[in-house]
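From the thread on structure requests for the teaching lab: each student submitted one protein with a one-line request. Submission from student K.M.:

"Model NYN domain-containing protein from Solidesulfovibrio aerotolerans, C-alpha cells only."
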Amino acid sequence: MTNRRLWLIDAGYMYRGQSYYNREYSIDYVKLRNKLEAETPIWRAYYLNSIPNPTPDSQVAFYNWMRSAPPQGPKIITKLYELRTSEINELYCEQCRRKVTVTCSHDRTHRLSREQQKGVDVGLATLALTHIENYDTLILSSGDSDLLDAIEYITEKNKRFELLVFKNGVSTDLQCRADRIWWIDEFAQEVARDRLPVA
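Reply posted by the TA:
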C-alpha cells in the first residue's frame, strides 16, 4: 500500500513556534525532512510565507537554499506572498468593549501601521485541496484554526491528517482531528540548526 505524503508549512507559524520554544533555537529543514522521511518519503513539500518588498538578500538566499535538493538543501517549494502594510489609528479594548484611538507617544502626527501576513492560509488550503488526488496523508505545520474547513473536507475524503507542530499555539480544533501529532518540542535538538563557530 502506498502512502504519498504532502507537507505544508506555514513559515510564520514555524518562526513563532521556534521562538516560543527557545529564543535562540532555529530549525534545520534538512534534518526535519530527514526525520519525517525516516518512515516514508515526502511526495512534495511547500513552504509558504509573506515577505517584504524589497526582500532582504539574506531571505532570498534562505529561500534559494530551501528549494535546493539534498544534500545541500531540503528540496521544499517556496510560495511567497507580499507582506501587506495597513494603517492603524484604532484598536479594540476588550475590557472597555469599544474601539480606542492609538497614537505615537513621541508625536501624535506620526502614522502608525502594521504588517500583516496575507495569502498564506488561503494558499495552504488551496494546495491541500488542489492536490487532493495526489496524496494519501497531509502533514501540516500550522496551528491556525482558519484551516479547519479544508481539513474537515480532506478527512471526509478519507485522507490521513497529521500535524507537525510545536506544543504552543496549536488550535485544539486541529489537534482533535489529527490522526497523528508530531510534537517538535520532543525532538527539537535532533532537528536543530548547527550553530556557526564564533570567529
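TA comment: The first strand starts at residue 5 and ends at 10. The mean pLDDT is 89.
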